[in-house]
Specification:
MotA_ExbB_proton_chnl, about 230 residues, mainly alpha
């Protein structure tokens, strides 16, 4: 009976210990960081929203730019071979993609030296690439700046903690000390999360853009090779 009673008391103690276990939500974690921590987290949240918007806006734009009919170049070559330059330009206008705009630039130079046509296509290609990479550099900036902003919050939090210790007069207020540590930890985590998201999004867009650039180069070379073929 004594053993059973001891087991029951230990079980009740364990249950009481579990019931009093403290939990901390994300909102409580942020609010516990004090004013400085909440300001840093707010800045990081704005950067996250900007990075998310740029990523999806560019992703959809790049996907749209990469859609080219597999029969497009065959039709262009047929029109050019038959001397139907106007029909070829009309087809390019209907497709309205980076590839079609490059080919259209080359079509408008037909009759000039091949080197001039190649130069015109290259210049147009640079403009197309610039358009595809619009605002992508902002993602790179966010991926680098967000962790530094988080570390700024860490430094502020540590300064607050040290300030409280220095002015405690031997009586350290654990709550005030914890607020400074919360600021340090939450902003660091927030900055790293935003930085990682921005870094991954930037590199994904770079890969997608490179695929479109390769597609433009391949079609341009095919067009120039067709013009260079002997009649």
């Amino acid at each position: 009976m004594i053993l059973q009673s001891n087991i029951q008391e230990a079980t009740e103690t364990l249950v009481d210990g579990e019931s009093t276990e403290k939990t901390l939500s994300i909102i409580e974690l942020i609010s516990s960081g004090g004013t400085a921590g909440m300001v840093i987290i707010a800045i990081l949240f704005v950067l996250l929203v900007i990075a998310t918007y740029i990523y999806f806006e560019r992703l959809f734009a790049i996907k749209a730019a990469s859609k080219v009919d597999s029969n497009f170049m065959n039709q262009i070559k047929d029109h050019v071979s038959n001397g139907k330059v106007d029909s070829a330009q009309m087809l390019c206008a209907q497709v309205n993609s980076p590839v079609s705009r490059l080919i259209n630039k080359g079509i408008t130079r037909i009759g000039k030296p091949l080197e001039d046509i190649n130069t015109a296509i290259e210049n147009a290609g640079r403009l197309e690439v610039y358009g595809l990479e619009k605002n992508v550099s902002v993602l790179a900036t966010i991926s680098g700046a967000a962790p530094m902003i988080g570390f700024l919050g860490t430094v502020i939090g540590m300064i607050l903690s040290i300030f409280e210790i220095a002015n405690s007069g031997g009586q350290i207020d654990i709550k005030l000390l914890a607020d400074g540590l919360y600021t340090a930890m939450t902003t660091t985590v927030g900055g790293l999360i935003v930085g990682i998201i921005g870094y991954v999004a930037y590199n994904h867009l770079v890969v997608k853009t490179n695929k479109v650039v390769h597609q433009m180069e391949a079609n341009s070379v095919e067009f120039l090779d067709h013009l260079n073929e002997p009649i």
